[in-house]
Amino acid sequence: MNQMNQQKLKDNIYLHFEKDWGKQSTQFSTCVEIFDYLSSRPVSQLKHLTLGSLKNAVKNHYSDIDMLTAIQYLCGDAIPVLSLHFEFIDDNDQSFDLGNHEIIEAKKEGKLVHPGTGEYIENYEEKVLMYFTPGILVKKAHN
Amino acid sequence: MPLQTLLNNLRNRNIPWPVMSTSFKYHGLTIGRGWDVTVAKLKETFESSSPEDQQKQLSSLSAIYKEILLSCEKSARFFTVDENIVSQFFNKIDNLVIPDSPFKSDYPNLISEDELNDIDLNIYLTSFSSTSNKATLIFCSKRLTQERIDIKATQFEQSVQDILNDFSEVIGIKNHNRQHFDIVVIDKTSNGIEIRLDYGKSIPSNDREASFRHIQNYLQELISEVIETEFILSPPIDLFPVINSLYHSDDGRICELAFTTETGSIKHEKMRRRDECLRSEAYHKGGSAAVDGNLSVYKIAATWEYTINDKLSTQPELLLPGVVRMLSQTNTSLNDVIISNCASLNDYSFITGKLEGFLEQNESNESTET
Fold it and tell me: Which DSSP string corresponds to B275-289?
């Protein structure tokens, strides 16, 4: 994608934010700052983004609630800026990626199969964490 | 061996689930999500199978168990032995006697918890097999291990529950005895002895050293008895030089690295992504370039993709667990490695083959320099 088209894509994304949140809203500026940060970084260095790293990226300007609202929106199908993933981190700080079906099953059964041992864990919620990678729109904005 | 016993044997070994499920799949056994569902499915399939198929399923589980005893979650050290000693050992191998013990009578099954609690802390030769070039000796012993256990408030009376309810999580550390299967391989082709300590990764390094010494002492006595001459093992092969060779090669995927820099820092890096290598990670490359690549690596772990067939593979891991003081000491030696995530002797040998390759490469570089 040439520079002109990239700018056009970015303008369209900003317009989308404006239409959904209103230009004066905190959500609008949170989404713009997150998107601008993601567009400014090489995609190869955005393989594991967390709530904490995104807060740092926007200089901790926003509350956790504002950040989570923006992130939830940016992970949606309408404007796929972020892609959501889950990981299980055990007591030894070892992390295991979890598929959506594993999360769905755990919610249904009230217990999660430990990906490393195959045994059930009941108090799993605090050990299952979200992380993010760039969504399709960020990848397009880079190309 | 009954189905339930085989399943208990396998489950009690705390084998990494990806390894276990790959082994089940390789043998065409039905699996589900995690142990509970898999055990239920295997029992259901077994009960609805013909006697002939039941026998096949038992043989498959038994084969998986035997491979796992020999190769799964081991710490290994290697020795070079005089050619004459190895020849004498193979010539007089009939002198090798397996002493009576509960381990021997129940092998390869685990002995009962009561028997394990009652038995002393000695090592027992439990089984051995040999070909013209290789003897494999299996030793059993009990070792004390610690396990983290989630404690549920509902297990206690009301007054304790009232106290525990203030905590979101209560963890207990339980001491218990575990039966270990240590392996010794005496190889006539390479004149080498390999000792594989069971559960190598989960044993603290001091205990690991003590356990290796315990086996070495017993092995010296045993070989001396067989060859009817006093035999003393030479020091184990120093594996520390392999750390640098592995780091500077492009072999495998480095997933853990610890090093010092000349700017005064100690770094410990771990790659959480299964498909990425620390060597090519942006932060590592940038940091390394900033100090002109002058990193002194003292600990490294790498994994390889080991293809079993067109649908199945394992990711065996080699960890060289050096410590920072080894960089400053003279006459230092890294005596053992930890080999994990192996489903069989094939992927285990693949890793020891890599290790041998690096050792040979170092030897050849040294001889070129001199």
Answer: T--GGG-HHHHHHHH
